[in-house]
Write a structure and sequence with these properties.
Elements (H helix, E strand, L loop, with lengths): L1 E4 L5 H9 L2 E4 L2 H9 L6 E4 L5 H14 L4 E6 L4 H9 L4 E4 L3 H24 L8 E6 L7 H14 L4 E5 L7 H4 L20 H7 L1 E2 L5 E3 L13 H11 L5 E5 L6 H9 L2 E7 L2 H16 L7 E6 L9 H8 L5 E3 L4 H8 L3 H4 L4 H14 L9 H6 L19
Parallel strand pairs: 1-2, 1-3, 3-4, 4-5, 6-10, 6-11, 7-9, 7-10, 11-12, 12-13
Antiparallel strand pairs: 8-9
Pfam families: AAA_31 (PF13614)
Protein name: AAA+ ATPase domain-containing protein
Organism: Pedococcus aerophilus
Length: 401
């Protein structure tokens, strides 16, 4: 079957001769829904009266979300500008609306190309790669988000996984300095590629760490943060998912458009609390906000950092305030800021340190993606659900053991 975007009800009979059975929709939103409901669809045909901007927007969307699908565009008249704009957006071919023979040939070529893409996919495991996306967040600064992000990502990279760490604290990001790297490019360089971000574009802004980790740094100038739209961040994450095993996102202590884009594409939210009332209050508000946004509860993981600090507040008090169990408790240690100052993640530098043990437990039990069809020992211990979503375990089972 071919999906057809055309407002004219007679278009179905007009084009089915050339492309076979046709399922027609009349709006861009309906086309997106139809594509979601047809995971094995190979061909999309856009009618001649669909405006060029909408057609190109849909083609860009399909190129990211369903790169194997072929988009053919019909126009009343062809010119160089139309051809250039269409091909830049990912349209495979542009055909004049009255050339049904040309349309049939284009549909055949497109399906052959899709079959080759599908064959390559089968050779590499039968499904398109989709990374596990993990966002580390707290609505309060100074709780250790960047320390968690750099340690988790370098640990996963050191085990052989292909990992990308994106610094979404666009005004004051510290991923680069925390890992003692000198990035030549940053996420700001992707703004000019918006709508056309691909694997090569990502490689052009990546800085590599000694652990094998790929990083994309925040801009050097805080003022550049306002020039980066949330849609570019969303596109970056969706493309990166196809080329990495894990994508980790370090975030600012605020619900920016970039953070909201990260939430939308995340499989796991690591929400960090510390033993102080402002941090607990902000985390409670974060949970309420996520509820309002419709974020699934089973994607959230509460981690208590500096859990043994003697400050008059206990872990039990945090559980009572949040009405949610703590998954992992990470102890307090002066070795952590010392490792940050050296630019060496403690999880690699001192693997037997209690902080490293807790962070490694977090990575293995909750972040690491299990092999398809198999539940790991860590999953069985933590009680993960068959879908891979994290289920909660009580404070009495957690902490430092």
């Amino acid at each position: 079957m071919t999906l057809l975007w055309d407002a004219d009800p007679a278009a179905t009979d007009r084009y089915d001769f050339a492309v076979g059975e046709v399922n027609r929709v009349d709006t861009q939103a309906a086309m997106v829904r139809a594509l979601e409901d047809a995971p094995h669809e190979q061909l999309v045909l856009i009618g001649p009266d669909v405006d060029m901007e909408g057609a190109c927007q849909f083609s860009e969307f399909a190129r990211v979300e369903r790169p194997e699908i072929g988009v053919l565009l019909l126009r009343r008249r062809l010119d160089v500008n139309v051809l250039g704009q269409a091909l830049r957006s990912g349209v495979r071919e542009v055909i004049t609306a009255d050339d049904l023979t040309g349309l049939a040939d284009a549909a055949r070529r497109s399906r052959e190309l899709t079959s080759r893409v599908a064959g390559h996919t089968a050779d590499t495991g039968g499904v398109l790669k989709s990374a596990r996306v993990v966002t580390i967040f707290s609505a309060k600064g100074g709780v250790g988000k960047t320390t968690f992000a750099t340690n988790l990502s370098t640990y996963l990279a050191s085990t052989g996984s292909k990992v990308l760490l994106i610094d979404l604290d666009l005004a004051f990001g510290d991923v680069g300095i925390s890992l003692q790297m000198l990035p030549q490019n940053s996420i700001i360089d992707l703004v000019s590629m918006a709508g056309h971000i691909d694997e090569q574009a990502i490689k052009s802004v990546v800085t590599k760490h000694d652990s094998g980790l790929d990083t994309i740094s925040a801009p050097a100038e805080p003022s550049d943060a306002d020039r980066i739209p949330g849609s570019t961040v969303g596109e970056l994450i969706r493309v990166a998912k196809r080329h990495y095993d894990y994508v980790l996102l370090d975030t600012p202590p605020a619900f920016t458009s970039h953070v909201l884009a990260a939430f939308d594409d995340s499989d796991l939210l690591v929400l960090i609390a510390t033993l102080d009332i402002p941090a607990v209050k902000n985390l409670r508000l974060t949970l309420d906000t996520l509820d309002l946004l419709g974020n699934p509860k089973d994607t959230r993981l509460i981690v208590l950092n500096r859990s043994d600090a003697k400050v008059g507040l206990r872990a039990e008090d945090v559980v009572a305030a949040l009405k949610q169990d703590i998954a992992i408790m990470v102890p307090n240690s002066t070795a952590v800021p010392a490792s940050v100052n050296r630019g060496v993640p403690i999880i690699l530098d001192e693997p037997k340190h209690p902080v490293s043990v807790a962070l490694r437990e977090l990575a293995e039990r909750f972040v690491r993606q299990p092999e398809p069809g198999a539940a790991s020992n860590a999953d069985q211990k933590s009680g993960s659900t068959p879908s891979g979503r994290t289920s909660r375990w009580s404070l009495s089972r957690g902490g430092n053991r």
